[in-house]
Design goal:
Elements: H1 2-49, E1 52-58, E2 64-69, H2 78-89, E3 93-97, E4 103-108, H3 112-123, E5 130-135
Parallel strand pairs: 1-5
Antiparallel strand pairs: 1-2, 2-4, 3-4
Length: 139
């Protein structure tokens, strides 16, 4: 009898250990889900606060290029977007690095208004989240 009682007690001890482990796993899972939710809300807040910047840059007397920055913050593959813009506007378009090390799309020509419409239609970015700037070129 003592052997069977010890065996039963041993099984009961194993059950409490597994339920403790299960409780710990559940707690870890809740913690991970909370972290993921916080990360997601932070990304959404960052996305809402961020803006796509369209710059018209003067290259010469009457020559311009249009640069589009921060488009990747809106879950857009900028290499594909550059290719789409090159095809749509029949102009040269490429992805280049800014001084800060971020990627931007550079399209030949003064296409600020057309590119703004294109971004709103193709990528679903609100017009409120687009900022237009003008820069003088380097001489």
């Amino acid at each position: 009898m003592s052997n069977s009682a010890e065996a039963l007690q041993s099984k009961t001890a194993n059950l409490t250990i597994s339920s403790d482990a299960e409780a710990k796993l559940a707690k870890d899972l809740k913690k991970r889900e909370a972290k993921q939710a916080a990360k997601q809300s932070k990304l959404e807040a960052e996305k809402a606060a961020s803006r796509v910047i369209i710059k018209r840059i003067e290259r010469g007397k009457r020559k311009y290029v249009t640069a589009i920055a921060n488009l990747q913050l809106f879950d857009v593959d900028i290499k594909k977007a550059a290719k789409m813009m090159a095809n749509k506007f029949a102009r040269g378009a490429s992805v280049s690095k800014t001084v800060e090390g971020k990627d931007e799309i550079v399209v030949q020509g003064d296409l600020v208004d057309e590119i703004e419409e294109f971004i709103v239609e193709q990528f679903g970015v609100d017009e409120d989240q687009i900022a237009i700037k003008e820069e003088k070129g380097k001489k």
